[in-house]
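Figure S7 source data.
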Amino acid sequence: MSDVEVKYTGPERVFSGVQPTGNLTLGNYLGAIKRFVPLQDEHECLYCVVDMHAITVWQDPAELARATREVTAAYIACGLDPKRAILFNQSKVHAHAELAWIFNCVARMGWMERMTQFKEKSGKHKERSSLGLFAYPALMAADILAYKATHVPVGEDQKQHVELSRDIAQKFNMDYGVQGFFPLPEPVIQGAATRVMSLRDGTKKMSKSDPSDMSRLNLTDDADLIAKKIRKAKTDPDDLPSDEDGLEGRGEARNLLNIYAALSDIPFGDAVRQFGGKQFRQLKEELTELTVAKLTPITDETRRLMSDTAEIDRILNDGAERASALAEPIMKEIRRIVGFV
Ligand code: AMP
Ligand code: TRP
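C-alpha cells for the predicted adenosine monophosphate complex:
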C-alpha cells in the first residue's frame, strides 16, 4: 500500500437528499433546494428523497408515502426539471442499502459517536434509539458514493456528515488499496441562508421537528399564516443596526435579515444597509410581502402536482431507473474490490 494520495480523476457529479418527514420548511428551501436548481444546468445531478433515512425514527407508513411524493412535487415546483436532474426515492435503488452495509464495516464506532446530529436526536434516550439512527451517516456516505458524486449541496447542519463521507471514502480507498477509486466528496455550503434559524429563538435551527409550528415557515403555509408567523416572530427592543457589527448577539434580527437577503437574492450586507436604523415592524412588513410573493407560486404548484400522484410515481420510477444504471457498474467494481464472489 502506498501512502501517496492518488487523486480521483472521474467526472464531477452532484448528489443531495431531503428526508420525507413532516413539512418542508423555508430552511430546506433556502439551505438546500433553491441551490439545487442552478446546478442542474452545469452538472449531472441526482436529487434523492431519502425515505430510508426517514425511518431511522418512526414514520407512519401512509404518511411516509405521502411525504415522499410531496417532497418530489416540491422539488419540481422549486424549479428542478425531472428530464435533466435525476429525481428519485432512495429505497427504489438497492445500491444504497448494499453499499451502506459495506460502509458500516468501514466506518468506526468512534466516528459515529462524535456526530452532533445523533447526539441531538437521541438525546437522553440513546439506548432506545434505533441502530439505524446511529448508522445514519454511513447510509448517507453510500448515497453519495454509490454514484461517485463529487459535490454535495447541503445546509450547514449537514457539513459534519459530508465530512464523515470523505473519511469513509478515504478509509475504503486505503484499506482495499484502491487509491483514487472513490472521490472525496465536497460539501457545497453557499448562499445567504445556509442556516435559517427558528422564528421563536435565534439560536436554534428552523426545523421540521420543532414542536411549535410558529417557529418555522412551511412550504405549505398560505399567505395569512405566513403573515401571522412573521408578525409574531421574536425580536428585541432596539431598532435595526446599520452595519453587521451591530448584529452581535442579536440572533433574531440577523435571521430575519438573512432570510430577506436570501429570498431577494441580494448580499447580506445590502439587506443590513437597506434596513439600517429602521424598526422591526418595517422589516417584518417587507419580509412578509417578499415571502408570500416567493413561496405562494411554489405552494400552489406543489399542490397542483400532488393532485396527480400517478405522474409523480412515474417520475420517481424513471429517476430510479436512471440512478440504478449509474450505480450498477460502480457496485460491480465495489463487489469485486471487497471480494464478494
Ligand atoms: P432534512 O430536512 O434534514 O432532510 O434537510 C434537507 C436539507 O435542508 C439539508 O441539506 C439540510 O442541511 C437543509 N436544511 C434543513 N434545515 C435547514 C435550516 N434551518 N437552514 C438551512 N438549511 C437547512
Ligand atoms: N442527512 C441529510 C439531512 O437530513 C439528508 C441526506 C441523506 C443527504 N443522504 C444525503 C444529503 C446525501 C446530502 C447527500 O438533511
